[in-house]
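Entry:
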Amino acid sequence: MTTSGVYYIWGEEEYLIEEKIRQIVGQMHDSAGAPPERITVDADEMDAAGLARALEFSPLFALNRVVIIRRPGWLDKSNRKTKKADDICRALSDSFEQGEGQVIIITARENNAGNPVTKLLTQKANVIHCPHPDGKQLSRWISDEFKSRHRKINSPALRMLSRSGLDMFYLQNLIEKLCLLSERDITEKEVEQQFTAKQDINVFKLIDTLMSRDLSGAMKAYEQLLVQGEHPVYLLYMIGRQFFLLAQVKCHREQGMLLKQIADTMGQKEFAIRKMMDKCNKFSHEELQKVFALLLETDISFKTSSKNPDIVMELLLSGICSGKK
């Protein structure tokens, strides 16, 4: 039996998942006539008992609230974080029975059907799949984004964007930038100018897959960068730099700082900090320490051994995604 106040949203495209969350929260606002209390739970940083406490709800303190748990480790395919799956299932089941007033939203990148918690959510939650849009859907979305900014984009430029392989958050930021740089309709020339730093785009795609612990995606992005002529040492530097920023964001967020405060403190753009805040849940402090140890080990290997750099980098990518040192 489905529990009306529980949503399980999964899929590769995080932009579409966030759109679904905004719709659910908006419906709660419209229904109650006031915005619900909104709580984001970092479930990877707590055990089952802590999760149960976080999900406890009493209408005495808030008439409505939404609890969002983004991509928790206990929904992963591996057993690394699912050893206490039964305890997690019990904590979630208890929270599902608390009655009206609270909505729980849990997201995942993949639907790992063999995971016990996934099985529970499939049975009890409203399941929403957010697949990556096909070419026609993406082209329509890109056109609508330009239209909402009172701009048009010609067909060749539209094809370039829809076939770029960039995620929708990145595309949205790129569309915003194109509209700010030009007061006329967008042509392939403007898009090409923004793609002159294509290597950088692919570097950040590699880093994004690593921070999402998506090994398959990371390997594909790495191979693409090698084809483009990027050197493993440069990629190691960029990965290290971004994970250092991720660790800073995680610390600032845990100190209670808000998005704009973190961006101002670190001297970074808000959209970049927002993406890192979304990735923070993927890594505990202990796992970040292991990542930095792996980066140091890889750097030393490059400088002191005769090992094949590609094999060394592949071990690094695998270690980051799996959490193993």
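The first strand starts at residue 6 and ends at 10.
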